[in-house]
Amino acid sequence: MASVNKVILVGNLGRDPEVRSTPDGFNVANVSIATTFSWRDKNTGERRDETEWHRVVFYNRQAEVVGQYLKKGSQIYVEGRLRTRKYTGQDGIERYTTEIVADAMQMLGGRNGGDAPMAEPMTRAGASTQGAGQYSTPSSGARDSFGDEFASSSPAPQAGRQATAHVSRQSATPMQQTRTAPSQAERPAAPQTSEPFNDMDDDVPF
């Protein structure tokens, strides 16, 4: 049976993104995203909040966009997968950390608060997340080596829509012509209603 490793987050950045380049030439951006779970205490009736921090990693073109347009407090939508890796700290001790590797992201609320937000989530492979039917994990050989090309979504040409509408109107014309009113000779005669009460005696006393 296939397994699933997928995370969806909507939250705010706790600090400005940290962008760097690896020795292999890959761009990497690290952010900390805060999500808040709210509930009401049934004993006191007070509203309580619980904030969770998530470490998210972006690569290549996504990392460039994150570093250029996002800052502390920016709201973002992220889809990704959990990954646990080992690293060596400055003290020489090996440690483990769990982070989210972003597969798709969408800026919410506009870029730097001024420009319009992105219409569709940006994926690492450059494809829109709309219409995706399944989730797949990249192979270990290409774990973090993702291309820099991202497909830009563009609206459908207006000319094509106008041509389609024109053809639809033309195809409907013969049907409209066949629905003309029937001639007087073809109209069925109106049924003659019987009057059952005419045979009753008018002299019946009441």
UniProtKB/TrEMBL annotation:
<dbReference type="InterPro" id="IPR012340">
    <property type="entry name" value="NA-bd_OB-fold"/>
</dbReference>
<dbReference type="Pfam" id="PF00436">
    <property type="entry name" value="SSB"/>
</dbReference>
<feature type="compositionally biased region" description="Polar residues">
    <location>
        <begin position="165"/>
        <end position="183"/>
    </location>
</feature>
<comment type="subunit">
    <text>Homotetramer.</text>
</comment>
<dbReference type="GO" id="GO:0009295">
    <property type="term" value="C:nucleoid"/>
</dbReference>
<feature type="region of interest" description="Disordered">
    <location>
        <begin position="111"/>
        <end position="206"/>
    </location>
</feature>
<dbReference type="InterPro" id="IPR011344">
    <property type="entry name" value="ssDNA-bd"/>
</dbReference>
<feature type="compositionally biased region" description="Polar residues">
    <location>
        <begin position="126"/>
        <end position="142"/>
    </location>
</feature>
<protein>
    <recommendedName>
        <fullName>Single-stranded DNA-binding protein</fullName>
    </recommendedName>
</protein>
<dbReference type="InterPro" id="IPR000424">
    <property type="entry name" value="Primosome_PriB/ssb"/>
</dbReference>
<keyword id="KW-0238">DNA-binding</keyword>
<dbReference type="GO" id="GO:0006260">
    <property type="term" value="P:DNA replication"/>
</dbReference>
<dbReference type="GO" id="GO:0003697">
    <property type="term" value="F:single-stranded DNA binding"/>
</dbReference>
